[in-house]
Each structure stands twice: as C-alpha cells, then as structure tokens.
Specification:
6-stranded parallel sheet, 18 helices, glycoprotein, 7-stranded parallel sheet, membrane, alpha/beta, transmembrane
Length: 466
C-alpha cells in the first residue's frame, strides 16, 4: 500500500515538473508567438520549458529557458532581399512552400558545419517531450530524431494543419472540402458545391504532399545526412504522438479529425489600457476613430517597392478625419499630424481600445484572431503563406475585406478602407463574431494544457485503448 502511494506521488510529481523543449523555425518569432499562450499555461502548471531557435544573431527567448543558438557572420536565410521582393510582386502558391523549407535547410547546413557541438548537446539533453514546429525547423527535426532520451515529439502548427501534414499523420481531414491553404487573392471564395473548387483543392492537396514528401524531404535529407543517415519527413510526422494547432475551428469551420489532433487557438489576449503619448494621440475629440496599421514581423517597410509604399502613404495621409497608428520600421517619414508612426506599437491594446474603428494588416492568423477578439473591422492585404485564406475567414463572416497587393493604388486602397469604415454592417458582424468566439464551456488554453498533460502522463504518447 505504501509502495503504491509513493509511486503515485512520484508519478504526479513527474507530470507536473516535466522538462519540455519547444523547437521553432529559424528566427521564428511569429510562430513562437503563436505557441506561447499554450506554453505559458504549461509553465503556470510547473513545467520547465526551454526554447530552441536558430537566431541571426538575436531573438527574444519569450521568458523560457534559453536553448537559443545565436549565429553570427551569417544573414538570416529568411530575410533576403529576394524573398522580400517576392512578397510584394508574386502570389504565394503551393509550389512556393518549398522555398522556406530550403531556407530552413540552409540554416541547418550552417548549424551542422559550424555549431555541431551545440547540435550534439541538444541530442544528448534529456527532455520528457519535444514540441517541434511543423514548418522549416530542419535541425530540430534532426536532433529530435536522434534524442538519446527517446523523447516523444509533438507537432505544433501555427496555423491550420497543412494538407501534407494532415495526410502524413492520417488525421482524417478531407482537404478537398476545406478552404485551400494557398487561396488565390483574385478569388477569395470557397464554394465546395462547385466542381472548380473541388478540383483546385484536389490539385493543391496532391501537390503539397509531393512537395513536402519528396522534394522538400530530399533537401532536408541532404542537410541532415552528416548526422541522420536517411532522414524521412514522412516518418518524422507519422511517428509524432499528436498534433496541436493554433487555428480555431470557430473561424475556419468544423471538420472531422482523429483524436490525436488538438486545437487550442480560440483564446483572446488580455489588453491593457493605453497610456502616455499614445493615449493622448488617439484621444483627439475631432477624430472619427483610430485606424491601426500593422504588418507583422516579416515586412520591412524600408524595402517596400517605392510605388506601393507611396500608395499606402498617400492613402493614410488622406484619411485626416481619423487618427492613424502605424507600426513602422522603415526610413524617416514625412507624414501629416494625424499619423503616429513607431517601430513598436502595443497592437493588442490599440485594437481593444474603444476608439479603434479599423485594422489594416497582412492577415497573419494572430492578427485575424486579435481583430476577431476586439470586434475590430479589418482590411487585410495578404503578403505570403496562407494569409489570403486567413483574410477569407474574416471576410466570409462579414467583418473584413481582402485587398489585393496587385491592385495597390491610393485610390483603390482608400476606396476599400472607406467601404469598411462607413458600412456599419462590418462593425455589427465583428461584435457578433466576438461574442460567439468567447462563448466556450472550457477555456481553450486550459483544454490544450489538459491534453498536453495527458500526453505526459502516458510517457509522451496518446493512451492506448486497445
């Protein structure tokens, strides 16, 4: 009896003090930020969580134990002028997905060539569970596959489960009947009753599987060859114990799934009241409201093509009836007094301020969710990845418009922004969706942490019922 009691005490202690590693893509501030609400909930419950990321050379560790690999004398493979130019000139289609994986492989080449000791340290360190980004974290896949403690790994998706991952994991999702990950900006619609949408969905699903399972796999296999003789991305995904996704089905819609796919993303951030200079700025009694302009961590305003930048600047300068808060990291600006530009803006706090009437953004999932939570109508101008689909989710529910960067002129952008600002249906729909989004029996982060803890109770894997 006493022995059984001691075993139970040790078992509970191990669950509540687990060593967990979160391994994100290189310079992956955005992806890590998507994972952090769940990670912080796990920290609150007593778990020790470390963060691995290849940083060029610096990046925040988000308050986690530091396993950051700071790489000097190299530029971030994801921050090339070529990639930044691509974002403004081209659409991100299914074949574009391979290039970020190639960048992740290039980063891993550097790690294994110049930082092999650090890689080996990660191989040999004991963790109870390893959480790896589903995208671009090539070296993390390598040291997880080699981990001496044989820690089980979980796939962490910062968006909806990619169709290749869903197929490799056999999650039971019919991606032909789901909105396409790389929805074209010239057709921001999803009508599965029409043959055209089912055909294009089928093509994208097959293409994504081929690209991830064969083309990308060969590039990653080449990078990891010095340490993993025959790496298989298919096998790595297949053998994961579960998948966690930040995409709420409240936005993308319900879908069938297996019991090892968990979502935790239908949460809202906690805002703080505006203070100081920013509060004084938005409190102008003559203002019709605040417009927030923020395009995430990837867009460098100093490298935006001149004509497109001028179109945005001219549009913002013309909206003199509003106070405009712009998260801006480019060259010095010549703006009118109604524009407040700063390299850092408390985005959540501005969105939740009751004076904010419009959000102009790129349509990253965090931005779409923050617009949803704060009941803020939006104009989304997608730049890359799945951002067209993210914008579609808000457009489909009636509180946003999706604007194409290919028709970016001051006249076109101003017309779209005025439409959302002056049509009250956008704000009414935003308020309605926010109420539905927050109406949960169990808080999604509490539920997500429960499922993560259940994995730990069973040695990092799903319980076996049969």
């Amino acid at each position: 009896m006493l022995a059984a009691l001691l075993i139970n005490i040790l078992f509970i202690h191990s669950v509540h003090n687990a060593k967990i590693l979160l391994a994100s893509m290189p310079q992956g501030r955005s992806h890590t930020g998507s994972f952090m609400p769940l990670i912080n909930k796990m920290k609150e419950q007593g778990h020790e969580i470390s963060l691995y990321m290849e940083a060029y050379p610096d990046e925040t560790n988000f308050g986690l134990k530091d396993r950051m690999l700071k790489i000097v004398n190299h530029t971030n493979p994801f921050a090339t002028e070529e990639f930044e130019s691509f974002q403004w000139k081209h659409d991100f289609v299914v074949t574009s997905q391979m290039f970020p994986f190639f960048y992740g492989s290039t980063s891993c080449d550097i790690v294994l060539r110049e930082h092999r000791n650090f890689f080996n340290q990660m191989v040999n360190e004991h963790f109870d569970l390893i959480l790896t980004d589903t995208l671009f974290a090539v070296c993390a896949y390598g040291f997880t596959a080699l981990n001496k403690a044989r820690a089980n790994h979980v796939l962490m998706s910062s968006t909806h489960v990619e169709s290749a991952t869903g197929a490799m994991r056999a999650h039971g999702i019919n991606f032909v009947l789901r909105p396409r990950q790389f929805m074209p900006v010239q057709d921001v619609e999803f009508k599965p009753e029409l043959f055209h949408y089912r055909v294009t969905g089928t093509f994208e699903w097959i293409a994504n599987f081929i690209i991830s399972g064969f083309i990308v796999n060969e590039r990653m296999k080449y990078s990891l060859a010095p340490v993993v003789p025959s790496f298989s991305f298919f096998e790595y995904q297949r053998t994961a114990s579960s998948t966690f996704t930040d995409m709420p089905s409240d936005l993308i819609g319900p879908f069938p799934r297996t019991n090892d796919l968990f979502e935790y993303g239908a949460y809202c951030p906690t805002p703080k009241p505006l203070t100081g200079e920013l509060l004084d700025f938005v409190s102008d009694p003559q203002s019709k409201g605040t417009i927030l302009v923020a395009f995430g961590t990837v867009i460098n305003w100093g490298r935006v093509p001149r004509k497109k930048f001028d179109a945005i600047l001219d549009t913002l300068n013309s909206l003199t009836d509003y106070r405009i808060v712009w998260a801006y990291n480019g060259h010095p600006l010549n703006t009118k007094p109604h524009i407040f530009a700063s390299s850092w803006i408390p985005q959540v706090d501005v969105l939740f301020d009751n004076r904010t009437v419009l959000f102009f953004s790129h349509g990253g999932l965090k931005s779409v969710k923050e617009a949803t939570c704060s009941s803020t109508p939006a104009v989304f101008m997608p730049m890359f990845a799945e951002q067209v689909r993210n914008g579609w989710m808000a457009k489909d529910k009636g509180y946003a418009e999706v604007f194409s960067k290919h028709i970016l002129t001051a006249e076109n952008l101003r017309k779209t922004m005025k439409l959302v600002l002056e049509n009250k249906s956008f704000s009414k729909n935003a308020a309605r969706i926010a109420n539905l989004f927050n109406d949960k029996v169990v808080h999604p982060l509490v539920q997500g942490a429960h499922y993560m803890n259940r994995l730990l109770r069973y040695g990092g894997r799903m319980p076996e019922y049969f």
